[in-house]
Specification:
Helix 2 packs parallel to helix 3. The chain contains 8 helices and 8 strands. The chain has an 8-stranded parallel beta sheet. It has a single domain, classed as TIM Barrel (Alpha-Beta Barrel), CATH 3.20.20. The longest helix has 14 residues. The chain is globular. By secondary structure, the protein is an alpha/beta fold. Bound molecules: 5-O-phosphono-D-xylulose and cobalt (II) ion (CO). Cobalt (II) ion (CO) binds next to strand 2. Belongs to the ribulose-phosphate 3-epimerase family. This is Ribulose-phosphate 3-epimerase. One of its GO terms (cellular component) is cytoplasm.
């Protein structure tokens, strides 16, 4: 069964814990935490302080998606805040292998993220070292954008690369995932689907999660 990772970018920040408790109660496995610095992407969101506060009351897997320049500078802070998985953009890392080792040195899971236009060739030599590959299906920076259709083929290619090497690497897909396209994403090979507006954009979060789960089958 596909894992769901609600993106808190689309939650009500004034009622953040309340919203997060709703997705936890609805059975969502990961909490997707979009960290933006206003440099790597044209938007600013949240830092480790908020993650640390949520950690006290939430038992989901904390999946931090760092959309920041120079991520090495902040990895320890996000680890100390309680993240279970940290993913970094290949486009933001000059020494990608070193950054992956840095994350793993804290005993948590490490992942790499690829923008829609970034080739899978860029992760050929680090695939054996990561726990997750996050494929962006929108250009990063904002929630509520439309899924870019050519990413489906990219998911299939990545699934093939992982299976051919016999690796235990999760594929996460992020951006524009809705009940109308989640089956296409899962059938292509995704293990984890991020959903921001498709979950937090709804009055009834239980119903929104149910719709994603039912349409994924
Ligand atoms: O990382 C990002 C955007 O940069 C995502 O995690 C979005 O926040 C997902 O939101 P939806 O596209 O599902 O509304
Ligand atoms: Co994200």
């Amino acid at each position: 069964m596909v894992k769901l990772a609600p993106s808190i970018l689309s939650a009500d920040f004034a009622r953040l814990l309340e919203d997060v408790k709703k997705v936890e109660k609805a059975g969502c496995e990961y909490l997707h935490i979009d960290v933006m610095d206003g440099h790597f992407v044209p938007n600013i969101t949240l830092g480790p302080g908020i993650v640390k506060s949520l950690r006290k009351d939430v038992n989901m897997v904390f999946d931090a998606h760092l959309m920041i320049e120079n991520p090495d500078k902040y990895i320890k802070e996000f680890v100390d805040a309680g993240c279970d998985i940290i993913t970094v953009h290949v486009e933001a890392c000059t020494h990608l292998h070193r950054t992956i080792q840095n994350i793993k040195s804290y005993g948590i899971k490490a992942g790499v993220v690829l923008n829609p236009a970034t080739s899978l060739d860029t992760i050929k030599y680090v695939l054996d070292d990561v726990d997750m590959v996050l494929l962006m299906s929108v250009n990063p920076g904002f929630g509520g954008q439309s899924y870019i259709p050519c990413v489906t083929e990219k998911i299939k290619e990545l699934r093939k690369m992982i299976d051919e090497r016999g690796l235990n690497v999760e594929i996460e897909v992020d951006g524009g995932v809705k009940p109308s396209n989640i089956k296409e994403v899962v059938d292509a090979g995704a293990d984890v689907c991020v959903a921001g507006s498709a979950i937090f954009g709804h009055e009834d979060i239980d119903e929104a999660v149910k719709a994603l789960r039912e349409n994924a089958k």
